[in-house]
Amino acid sequence: MKHLYLPFVVFGLLFLPSLQAKAQRQNLRASTALSYIERGNQWFAKGEYVKAESDFTLAIASDPSQAGAYYNRATTRYRLGKLSEARADLDRTLQINPRMVEAYVDRGGLRYAQGDFDGAIQDCGKALELNPKLAVAWANRGLARGSKGEHAGALADFDHAIQLDRRNAGFYNNRGVAHARLGDYDGALSDQNRALTLKPDFAEAFSDRGAARQFKGDLDGAMTDYNQAIRLNPHFADVWFSRATLWQHKEKWARAESDFTEYVVLKPQHASAYGQRGLMRLRLGRADEAQQDFAQCLELNPNLQDSLRQLIEVVKQEVAKKP
Description:
This protein is mostly helical and 323 residues long. Helix content is 76%, strand content 0%. Helix 5 packs antiparallel against helix 6, helix 8 runs antiparallel to helix 9 and helix 10 runs parallel beside helix 12. The protein is elongated.
């Protein structure tokens, strides 16, 4: 239950220029810009994001007052992994049209991805001022609040999201995470069961339900859920970490070491995972490999030095006591 599953819902739709908008904009620059936007949308629909970005840039050059061109270019740049450029385009979009709800939601998503949870909350709040019936804005604000440790506030936001959209499996799963972080594991299991009823192949819900079961002491149920999550999505990193901790609880050091390895392949910048794998390797008598992991852990996060040293001593003492 260490990690939230669902990232922000970001960039769901493109701006589509309407015939009415064309009729209202008779000047050549605006008409040219709208033509580029239409063609860019066609490229986007085909997955040709580089070509789409180029057309949206031409639209902006033709008429810099077109908020939709900036918004669509932001959407495209997000797909291309150009997060800073996408953020700049969203800023410009909102300067031109401060009432574009989607742009607030998406900018909140970028802020969330960059670790700016306060900014994400602020943007979702603005979106909700403009449209309080926007379920995704409630859900996204809940995610940001949960990331700040405001789990009661997160739970309230997910309640609102579910009231507006009772068929969204992700909303139920994330509310389940909020329940679990408040110590209500039965509430978590109820929501995750609902999520899996709505979406039976929901790997992340299996993983989070496994975590709730593990906290309740149902280790066999937790293992079953983790295994199913991995079968459904072996690229979902967090479930490997969760299953590794369960193997640790069972003192299956080799299996824990293997799962931590799968995790760091998927998330190579997670310092504590190297530390945990090093501890498993130390228990398995592979001291040289363990030292390499400890060094990598501290290179990524030097602040872990004291806690890691204490854990190493504990493991060494336990190993020394065994015949």
